[in-house]
Amino acid sequence: MRVVNFLFGIPIILIGAFLLSLTVNSFGTFGNIIMNIAGIAILSSGALIIRGGKEKHTP
Prior knowledge:
This protein is mostly helical. 75% of the residues lie in helices and 0% in strands. It is elongated. This is Serine kinase.
């Protein structure tokens, strides 16, 4: 289960980092701010997916 979270989270983190670093002049200042906010949200959601919940181990 942890491997699936890891493999699913890495592309999400890469997409978020791409959106965070991207600047397009035709979007204007407001569009770039919105894209940065979306990049931060996607980046943090990818980190939360990888971190995941703690699995319960029964003895």
